[in-house]
């Protein structure tokens, strides 16, 4: 099994280097030519618990990806991981992934928010196995060839709609990936509840991310002020109701869990707050914008998701 | 000239008692029977610069208003001041004001925000002189019969659309009111730019009020944090553009003025913050909601006004 990591950002680098260190056959497919030549030249550096590991792996840039020899290209049984942010999931990138997956490789999608899976499915060859994934691990890319592994967690993936895939063969492909991950010391879980897990993560992000960005506070500070807590609660209730209409099971996504995440990540700045502070585009369109989209499909209003989305866009 | 003050809240009480102390013929028309009997019984108390003045004035409750003797009712040359908040401007209240104004009294409207003038005009007898007013004075009602005069300012009023009134007689009625006000030591200004002034006040309120309520800060603290300042600026620009489309003259409503008001009232909590903290309904529907309404009429979007309105409503 070969694994092609498309987009060597923080998560892609962290998983790719940990897998390569564990003996897996990794090819990074980077967006820039510079990053590919850096990693291909002297390896990527993984910083973990204060230790540094230089890991050698293949790397090509997206524009050079098609220049790989026939036998270096992914085929049946191989995996392509799309680890770029939704904002970088352009038609051009999807066209490259489509070419890469033409010989039957499966595709794992590690985006935050929602909205990407239908787009990816529409762009890839019919019959491609596409599985959504959620990571609770932490990573911070310090430079194009250095990534810091900042928080242990789990990589979960599985079919989006269990029972609708063509079954046994696809299940084996996914179980093989779990065993390759575990060999590399990565905790992985094959889930048949991915929609619930995606919605639950979306719900937590939809409350914490925009409000920490608007109020300019760390996750732990968010619930400490009465009007912030009231807005969290109102945004949670609106979002929970919309996600429930769209299929979120009632055992997922509790208010207590949102507060527990604020507490567990108290000293962290949310990615949205960091993006706003750095003047980068945020993921708002796929988080609260994604929930607003589900609301529109269901014909129900989403005033608070619209509100925080408008305010975060104004902060860019 | 007799002046009937409908709604003895902070502004109504402050003006009514100052006018009565100055010799004007005042009748309070209160919403509650209790307040009317308190004021009619032992007078209202005006607290000004540490001094207390007990002022005797007529007072009837709205439900008893029609029980006034024929010669106690307002007629041509008299004024009815509507000083209730927009939330209290019910159909029932407008019906009472309509009866009171049936004999030709003029009507002065002291509401914040916009949206009330067409409603009032539709409810009152055709041909009634209706003038909008803006006060920059401060008042705090401490109990149903005690009001504190907290900040000196000006009462401005005038025809909403100059030239569209039936001219001379109405101008005399308004000038008479100015002289009665000045006799009582109240600084008054007859303006033929009321629409601009209303829009300018609306613009300032639309930026400061919802954001101080959302962030839970005093006026002076609002611009001190980068994301708050960015949201102020974005909300100002959106609102300014909508008001300009609706007729705001470009010499009114500058960004510097918004910042100057924050500074001049640095230690104050905005009325919207106080309302939110006390669990009272806010004036959001007539401030940012009013601007959103103008945007809809003009067929342009108002995402940030919609956003802060949704968030303030969630804080109630």
From TrEMBL, chains A, B:
Residues 3-161 form the Ketopantoate reductase N-terminal domain. One of its GO terms (cellular component) is cytoplasm. The keyword Nucleus does not apply. Residues 194-315 form the Ketopantoate reductase C-terminal domain. Gene3D superfamilies: N-(1-d-carboxylethyl)-l-norvaline Dehydrogenase, domain 2, NAD(P)-binding Rossmann-like Domain. It is an enzyme of class 1 (oxidoreductase). GO terms for molecular function: 2-dehydropantoate 2-reductase activity; NADP binding. Signal peptide: none annotated. InterPro entries: 6-PGluconate_DH-like_C_sf (IPR008927), 6PGD_dom2 (IPR013328), ApbA (IPR003710), Ketopantoate_reductase (IPR050838), KPA_reductase (IPR013752), KPR_N (IPR013332), NAD(P)-bd_dom_sf (IPR036291). This is 2-dehydropantoate 2-reductase. Keywords: NADP, Oxidoreductase, Pantothenate biosynthesis. PANTHER family: 2-DEHYDROPANTOATE 2-REDUCTASE, 2-DEHYDROPANTOATE 2-REDUCTASE-RELATED. Catalyzes the NADPH-dependent reduction of ketopantoate into pantoic acid. Its EC number is 1.1.1.169. The lineage of its organism: Bacteria, Bacillati, Bacillota, Bacilli, Bacillales. Pathway: Cofactor biosynthesis; (R)-pantothenate biosynthesis; (R)-pantoate from 3-methyl-2-oxobutanoate: step 2/2. Belongs to the ketopantoate reductase family. The keyword Oxidoreductase applies.
């Amino acid at each position: 099994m070969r694994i092609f990591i498309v987009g060597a950002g923080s998560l892609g680098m962290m998983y790719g280097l940990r897998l390569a260190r564990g003996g897996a056959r990794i090819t990074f497919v980077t967006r820039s030519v510079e990053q590919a030549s850096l990693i291909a030249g002297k390896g990527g550096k993984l910083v973990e618990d204060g230790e540094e590991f230089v890991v050698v792996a293949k790397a090509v840039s997206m524009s050079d990806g098609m220049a790989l020899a026939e036998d270096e290209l992914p085929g049946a049984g191989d995996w392509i991981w799309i680890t770029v942010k939704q904002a970088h999931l352009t038609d051009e990138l999807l066209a490259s992934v489509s070419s890469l997956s033409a010989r039957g490789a499966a595709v794992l999608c590690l985006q935050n928010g929602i909205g990407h899976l239908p787009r990816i499915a529409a762009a890839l060859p019919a019959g491609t196995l596409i599985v959504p994934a959620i990571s609770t691990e932490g990573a911070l890319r310090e430079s194009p060839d250095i990534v810091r592994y900042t928080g242990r967690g789990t990589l979960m993936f599985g079919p989006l709609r269990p029972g609708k895939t063509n079954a046994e063969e696809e299940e084996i492909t996914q179980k093989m990936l779990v065993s390759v991950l575990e060999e590399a010391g990565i905790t992985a879980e094959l889930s048949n509840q991915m929609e619930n897990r995606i919605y639950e993560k979306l719900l937590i992000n939809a409350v914490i991310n925009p409000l920490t960005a608007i109020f300019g506070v760390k996750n732990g500070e968010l619930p400490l002020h009465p009007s912030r807590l009231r807005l969290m609660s109102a945004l949670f209730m609106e979002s929970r109701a919309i996600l429930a209409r769209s299929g979120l099971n009632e055992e997922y996504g509790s208010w207590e869990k949102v507060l527990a995440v604020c507490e567990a990540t108290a000293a962290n700045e949310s990615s949205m707050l960091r993006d706003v502070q750095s003047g980068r585009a945020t993921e708002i369109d796929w988080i609260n914008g994604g929930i607003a989209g589900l609301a529109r499909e269901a014909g129900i209003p989403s005033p608070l998701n619209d509100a925080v989305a408008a305010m975060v866009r104004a902060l860019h």
